[in-house]
Write a structure and sequence with these properties.
mainly alpha, 507 residues
């Protein structure tokens, strides 16, 4: 453009060149101004852009520095985490190695144990075979024997525990029981019974023995047939003996023979008359005795037929103690104890009064007098508790009431108190000798002594052969043998004594 302007200027005319130059100058100035202004604007924009860029750069740098700081922290955390992981890996490696070594040791130990187990089993089998050969027992038989021994030890342990509990209970109950029994015995305060129903009839002279026998023995045969007793006429002076299991028949024979001897007229017809009269008299005595005993014992309302049987105890004795008086005394004691213990006194009195009723017919009925009495009570429609008191007073059946326990205790008190019963010196010595022989018949017993008038047996045992548990079993076995083999009044205590003595000699 400047070239064109210059060419116009060179062409002439009104100084077109000058105008052109001026125009050009103006244009140039405007262009320069525009350029300057644009340059300024561009510079300003560039400066603004630079400032913005610098601000952005500074912000970016700040962000970058912050990011670098975060990255450094992250790297540090990662480094620490890696260090921890490395330490953990090392620990796990060590533990893994230790576990491997332990596993190897366990496998080795297991192999050794398996080997030892096999050896032990082999040795046990050999030992079992040797023991079976020595003991002549199979393993099953030995196991059964061992189980029996274990059961016996368990029973012994149970017995010890039971005895300990019983001892504790007895310690707590002794004072009350002593007070109750003492009170009851003091209140009854009955006479000591020593009467005895004998079967010996006195006669005025030995000449009367011939009259009792009669011509060709017809009188004695008639008497034995009518009374059911054996008439024994021996060398005993001025006495004739009657023998029979039935005490009532023996009493009838005694009364009839005494009247015949007193009258002097002895022949079969007279014998039958006197026996019939004595029978009616004895039956009347039995009825009256039964009713009187029931009234005295405060037991009204008992069946008449039952009292007729019960009254027969008037002619029954046990070691010199009349059984009817014993029954009444036991009823009194039972009533008093029952009242002290808040039990049923009426049931206790009735059970105690009838506890020995079986003795009235035990020579006619099979069984023990306690069981016979219980059956009779049920047959006469008495309370089942009363029947249990009767049949359980010798522990032949289980007691079902406290009244049954009272009856058993009162029976022992009445029959076992001093002076209540008596026996001959020969029978007494024989019973003591039998007690000592029973005790010494057991293995391991050194000596035995019957003391306390035969109410206690002291047994001395060999401590090397009898231990404490065996002593307890020995006491039970001796007690059981005495109960099965002897007849005795009251109770007998068996005491086994075991002592160990250590002896040295000083030289």
């Amino acid at each position: 453009m400047l070239g064109a302007i210059r060419r116009l200027l060179r062409g002439g005319g009104p100084d077109p060149r000058e105008e052109a130059r001026l125009e050009a100058q103006r244009i140039t100035e405007r262009a320069e101004q525009d350029a300057k202004s644009r340059l300024i604007e561009a510079q300003e924009e560039a400066l603004a852009a630079r400032r913005a860029s610098e601000a952005d750069l500074r912000a970016s740098e700040a962000d970058l520095r912050e990011a670098e700081a975060d990255l450094r922290r992250a790297r540090q955390d990662q480094q620490r985490h890696e260090e921890r992981l490395g330490a953990r890996e090392e620990s796990l490696d060590r533990k893994s190695g230790e576990l491997d070594r332990q596993d190897q040791r366990l496998r080795t130990r297991q192999q050794e144990l398996d080997t030892r187990q096999e050896e032990i089993e082999h040795l046990v089998a050999q030992e079992r075979e040797r023991l079976e050969a020595v003991a002549q027992l199979t393993s099953e038989e030995a196991r059964e024997k061992l189980m029996g021994l274990v059961e016996e030890e368990i029973r012994d342990d149970v017995n010890r525990r039971v005895r300990a509990a019983e001892a504790t209970i007895k310690d707590q109950a002794t004072d009350h029981a002593r007070k109750f029994v003492a009170t009851a015995v003091q209140r009854v305060a009955s006479e000591v019974t020593t009467e005895s129903t004998v079967s010996v009839v006195p006669i005025p002279s030995d000449e009367m023995k011939g009259r009792i026998i009669g011509r060709e023995g017809r009188n004695i045969r008639a008497l034995e047939l009518a009374t059911g007793c054996d008439v024994i006429i021996d060398d005993t002076p001025d006495a004739v003996t009657l023998s029979a299991f039935d005490p009532v028949r023996r009493q009838i024979g005694k009364v009839a023979l005494a009247r015949l001897v007193s009258d002097g007229r002895i022949h079969p017809t007279r014998i039958e008359e006197q026996v019939e009269k004595a029978t009616r008299e004895i039956e009347q005595n039995i009825r009256e005795a039964g009713e009187q005993a029931a009234g005295e014992a405060r037991c009204p309302g008992l069946p008449r037929d039952l009292l007729n049987v019960f009254g027969r105890l008037l002619y029954r004795t046990s070691y010199g103690q009349n059984q009817l008086r014993h029954a009444v005394e036991t009823a009194h004691l039972a009533g008093m104890l029952a009242e002290e213990m808040d039990a049923d006194a009426d049931i206790a009195r009735r059970g105690a009064l009838l506890h020995d009723i079986g003795k009235a017919v035990d020579h006619e009925v099979e069984g023990t007098h306690a069981l016979i009495g219980g059956d009779m009570a049920r047959r006469f429609k008495l309370n089942d508790t009363i029947a249990n008191c009767i049949e359980a007073h010798h522990d032949e059946v289980e007691m079902t009431s406290v009244e049954a326990v009272i009856v058993q205790v009162c029976d022992a008190i009445s029959g076992g108190r001093p002076g209540a019963r008596r026996e001959s010196a020969d029978r007494y010595i024989e019973r003591l000798r039998a007690l000592e022989e029973i005790a010494t018949s057991f293995d391991g017993v050194r000596q035995s002594f019957a003391i306390q008038a035969g109410r206690e047996v002291r047994v001395l045992v060999d401590p090397d052969r009898i231990d404490d548990l065996e002593s307890m079993r020995l006491a039970r076995d001796i007690t059981r043998r005495i109960e099965e083999g002897l007849t005795y009044p009251g109770q007998i205590r068996v005491t086994v004594l075991r002592e160990t003595r250590a002896t040295e000699v000083a030289r």
